[in-house]
Design goal:
Blueprint: H1 12-20, H2 26-44, E1 47-50, H3 52-67, E2 79-83, H4 110-117, E3 121-126, H5 154-161, E4 167-172, H6 178-184, E5 187-190, E6 210-215, H7 218-228, H8 246-251, E7 260-263, H9 273-286, E8 291-294, H10 298-301, H11 303-325, H12 335-342, H13 346-366, E9 372-376, H14 393-400, E10 405-412, E11 418-424, H15 430-447
Parallel strand pairs: 2-3, 2-4, 7-8, 7-9
Antiparallel strand pairs: 1-3, 4-6, 5-6, 5-10, 9-11, 10-11
Helix pairs in contact: 2-3, 11-12, 11-13, 11-14
């Protein structure tokens, strides 16, 4: 029986429940998503590769599994968009550059294996910026096609915001999950570093690359990351310890009112006036009883520069042979960043790694006294479309130290476009962060 509501508008949790209950078929859901893609992707350009026959074949198989009475997964029959730096055995992975056009991996990335195990339908490959770095893809913002959706997870965020799919994968080395989610009015969540394997994903920074995702509800994005999470000895950052249940955290009630911190960083002068006004209203609503404003020490302020040093040095180390052999195919946006990275010495890099380690230790102690840190997700509304995808400065420090971060689509700017609020939590307490985020969202919707 066909579901009475437009299937592509369902949340992932609702869609999975409807499929498991026999009230919706995965094939009908995928058809609805494909129809929506046909309607809008010529303008949005969210997809780097899509194979409708493959998607429908996966969906039909998920329906057969359910009808046969066999086990069904947490995302059974639910379509997911995969960022085009994540290897897929049956789809090309071009990494946002003509250098790798037509590249066909032999095996799935670890997270794709986990998604398939959960019954997800791998819908296609979403567009990414060049090498998942600074030069924009052609993707546009669904709220206003004259604006950027953010990067580097441009296609993933646009696909979810445009109701092409309920879920999509992003990666973050600086701000590539949190910032685009803010620009497109979605929930973006990047768990603790090491929660999700990076095996089979383009390596731009062995120290900083992390995996996350996009959804239209907090529960959905938590479930997506639960499915992807797990130990993988092939990834040196992956840890062999029990993992928090993120969906349970997103659904839980906070036992007491959480306490928050806000760092008055000097780079807050980069906030657009309307974003500054909106963040001030958030802090005023919470009040000094719930939020402590902190003047950061210089070492914390310097963490943005530390992140840039590690990122630029490591991308040159990992991809220098590719850059050297294909210099004429690299954008004018990326070339200066590569040249800057090549000038960073090994000693400067080692110093930066040492600072990163010290910062991780600082925040381990810091969160003894706080449930979360509140920060802007981006500088404001999505900028106009251009060769870059927006300033990631409000994400840099948190990515550097590998903490779990979530952005909530709670605010709007001067032209009505979305602005997110970022909440950062303690390492490996991702469930607690999502519980805190749920309390925060409910409180603001009531009081703001």
């Amino acid at each position: 029986m066909r579901h009475k509501d437009p299937a592509n508008g369902l949340s992932a949790v609702k869609a999975a429940d409807e499929i498991k209950g026999g009230r919706l078929s995965s094939v009908d859901l995928v058809k609805a998503c494909l129809e929506r893609i046909t309607q809008s992707d010529e303008t949005l350009k969210a997809w780097a590769f899509i194979d409708p026959e493959n998607a429908l074949a996966q969906a039909a198989e998920m329906d057969r599994i359910r009808q046969s009475g066999r086990a069904v997964g947490a995302l059974h029959g639910v379509p997911v968009g995969i960022k085009d730096i994540v290897d897929t055995r049956d789809m090309p992975t071009a990494r946002g550059t003509p250098i790798f056009e037509g590249r066909q991996p032999e095996a799935d990335a670890a997270i794709v294996d986990r998604l398939r195990e959960a019954g997800a339908v791998i819908m296609g490959k979403t567009a990414t910026t060049e090498f998942a770095f600074v030069h924009a893809a052609e993707t546009r913002n669904p709220h206003n096609p004259e604006r950027t959706p953010g990067g580097s997870s441009s296609g993933s965020v646009a696909a979810v915001a445009a109701f092409h799919v309920p879920l999509a994968i992003g990666t973050q080395t600086n701000g590539s999950v949190i910032r685009p989610a803010s620009f497109c009015g979605l929930y973006g969540f990047k768990p603790t570093r090491g929660m999700i394997s990076r095996h089979g994903i383009l390596q731009t920074s062995k120290s900083l690359d992390q995996v996350g995702g996009f959804a239209r509800t907090l529960e959905d994005v938590a479930l997506l990351n639960d499915v992807m999470s797990g130990y993988d000895p092939r990834d040196p950052s992956s840890f062999a310890r029990p993992r928090p249940a993120m969906r349970e955290g997103a659904l839980a009630d906070a036992p007491v009112e959480p306490t928050f911190a806000w760092f008055d960083m000097p780079y807050h002068d980069r906030l657009d006036p309307d974003c500054q006004e909106a963040m001030d209203a958030v802090l005023e609503t919470l009040g000094p009883r719930r939020v402590e404003r902190i003047q950061p020490v210089p070492a914390l302020v310097n963490l943005v520069a530390v992140q840039a040093t590690i990122h630029q040095y490591e991308i040159c180390q990992h991809l220098d042979t590719v850059f050297a052999a294909n210099w004429d195919q690299i954008s004018a946006t990326l070339k200066p960043v590569i040249e800057s990275g090549r000038k960073i010495t090994a000693a400067q890099y080692e110093d930066a790694i040492g600072v990163m380690t010290s910062a991780e230790e600082y925040f381990t102690a810091f969160f003894v006294d706080f449930d979360g840190v509140i920060a802007p997700s981006a500088t404001g509304e999505a900028p106009m479309f251009g060769p870059a995808t927006g300033d990631p400065v409000f994400c840099s420090m948190w990515t550097l130290v590998g903490l779990p971060t979530v952005t909530l689509p709670l605010l709007a700017g001067a032209t009505g476009l979305p602005i997110g609020v970022q909440i950062i939590g303690p390492a490996e307490r991702d469930d607690r962060l999502l519980r805190t985020a749920g309390w925060f969202e409910n409180m603001l919707k009531t009081e703001l």
